[in-house]
Amino acid sequence: MGIKIGVIGGSGFYSLFEKGEKIKISTPFGDVTLTHGKIENKNVYFLPRHGEKHSVPPHKINYRANAFAFFLLGVDYVISTSAVGSLRREIKPGDIVVVNQIIDFTKTRPTTFFDGKFEVRMRDGRIKKGVIHTDVTNPYCEKLRRIIIDVLKEKNLRFHEKGTYVCTEGPRFETPAEINFFRMIGGDVVGMTNAPEVFLFKELEICYATICIVTNYAAGMQEKVTHEEVIELFNKNLPKILDVIKTVIKRI
After folding, report:
1. What is the largest CA-CA distance in the chain?
2. CATH number, domain containing residue 70
């Protein structure tokens, strides 16, 4: 069947194909609508994380259904994008960060499939069930991260090849006091969606990595933070991000 690749679009990234086929996948956690198309003759499935019209706030996203839909489709790699705020002056708006660590400050989201009752047959035939404590020493797939980093180097884009993503509950932005705290504990960028997304793909043993686009300095580092500002800067950078994603797909 060949390699299958998933792409998850964050804020400002709502379509990938000029022409694509809409498909609905039913999962134990709800239905998911994705768009299927071909890039570099590979099967690619695109999912806008917040919906096509940004109608789903970060704390209401059905992360388990989304991840499990990719699993049912037999996807091998998932490339996600995230609009983030910078916690550090040297990480500037417009920069790209290929994060390698995450700190989870979310409060209400289901963070696992394995609540004691769930059972799934993995692709190699193993049954995973019951309570499972997943190792997240390396939460993001290093193989996919290296491909992304190599592509960014070749395209001579300004990027940071490591970084710690702090995930907050949202949908509000953070306070300056929270941002100071996140910086003190080692955070580099802040966003609202990588948890539990990264952990769920880890449980399903799907290679997942995130391309973070810095859209602003976080609260207290600039006068104020607005959603309009985030979308505007992301849209400005979207053509180069699409070029990076298509090149990464070619290299996988």
Report:
1. 54
2. 3.40.50.1580
